Amino acid sequence: MGFEGEKREEGVVMANDFFWSYTDEPHASRRRQILSQYPQIKHLFGPDPFAFLKIWDNVRWDEPHATRRRQILSQYPQIKHLVGPDPFAFLKISGVVLLQLWTATFLQDATWLKILIVAYFFGSFLNHNLFLAIHELSHNLAFSTPVYNRWLGIFTNLPIGVPMSVTFQKYHLEHHRFQGVDGIDMDIPSLTEAHVVKNVVAKSIWVILQLFFYAFRPLFLKPKPPGMWEFVNFTIQLSLDGAMVYFWGWKSLAYLILSTFVGGGMHPMAGHFISEHYVFKPEQETYSYYGPLNLMTWSVGYHNEHHDFPRIPGSKLYKVKEIAPEYYENLDSYKSWSQVIYMYIMDRTVGPFSRMKRKLSTKANKSE
């Protein structure tokens, strides 16, 4: 076995011509030598001031999901049978809502440290699950009748502590219809965020507060007049908050709010905010995550599949990849949301500006 005894052709390099050395690392030595001779090179250190322009202005006309959806359906028309509501959505949501509200009442006399610990390691997972259930309901994936989904969304909203389910649907559907269109897709960070959030410290703060940016960005950049459903959402939510304080005290309500806040910041579950559309590879604008947290997040990690087929519930998105693997296996994807957060913070070439933008076309493809 092997190549012993075989005549080697002239100029051919074999694996055993190399050896490993763990003592001489050339780059650090050369760096010291160069800096001792040319100290002015230190003035070249720092981020690329034009990175913002290079990445932010990466404008595309084509929207990949509508195109890929047509291609997949022409080849695998059976995927249409996956479309429709999740029959178990109501039961799954109800269980999490009741568990989280009970936990809040249980902690009414707990210390603040205990409340914070339970909120981060337990409540945050429940509230983020509910946030993504609201995402599922925004696509009417619990009931065939849209108004039933809206009522269930308001119920799902209760442990989150802040009214958002109705407003979220308005903006999220535009994110699908006009993905990457600046001024319409409110998932794209503002110019102010892109200019300010450029270093490790700023990005760390941005990640911790990203839920606030996500929630308030639309209200400042593209405010929509509230309607009757926002009023209903607001009234029911404040009634629950008031009842929580009246019967169980401020600590119970604080637990719910903390669970929402920490679960949307420097937390593994919140990694999907970054992993979904922040561009780490210039030619790809949407990324899927195929890790275990999909079990707790309505499979939102299957994000390419979700944008390709937004009317297929999360519980069936894995089947899209199974039926048409050749359309997804060659795309970059993630297995860890925590790693995505780390890469986002530490990579100088990535920031709020790392998004693919496109101009609004009169023939804009609609993903909804």
Kindly report how far apart the N and C termini lie: 60 Å
Shape type: globular
Q: How much strand content do the residues show? A: under 5%
Largest sheet: 2 strands, parallel
Number of strands: 2
Going across the major beta sheet, what is the strand order?
1-2
Q: Which ranges are low-confidence, i.e. pLDDT below 50, for 5 or more consecutive residues?
A: 1-24, 49-59, 364-368
Helix count from the secondary structure assignment: 16
Helix content: 40-55%
Instruction: Output mean pLDDT.
Output: 87
CA-atom Rg in angstroms: 25 Å
The chain-level structural class is mainly alpha
Order of helices and strands: HHHHHHHHHHHHHEHHEH
Subcellular location: Endoplasmic reticulum membrane; Membrane
GO molecular function: sphingolipid delta-4 desaturase activity
Family: Belongs to the fatty acid desaturase type 1 family. DEGS subfamily.
Enzyme class: oxidoreductase
Features:
transmembrane; 368 residues; disordered N terminus; transmembrane helix; endoplasmic reticulum; globular; two-stranded parallel ribbon; disordered C terminus; Sphingolipid_d4-desaturase_N; mainly alpha
Spell out the blueprint of helices and strands.
Blueprint: H1 26-37, H2 51-56, H3 64-75, H4 89-106, H5 112-138, H6 146-157, H7 165-177, H8 191-196, H9 200-208, H10 210-221, H11 228-248, H12 250-263, H13 271-275, E1 288-289, H14 303-308, H15 317-323, E2 333-334, H16 337-346
Parallel strand pairs: 1-2
Helix pairs in contact: 4-5, 4-12, 5-6, 5-7, 5-12, 9-16, 11-12
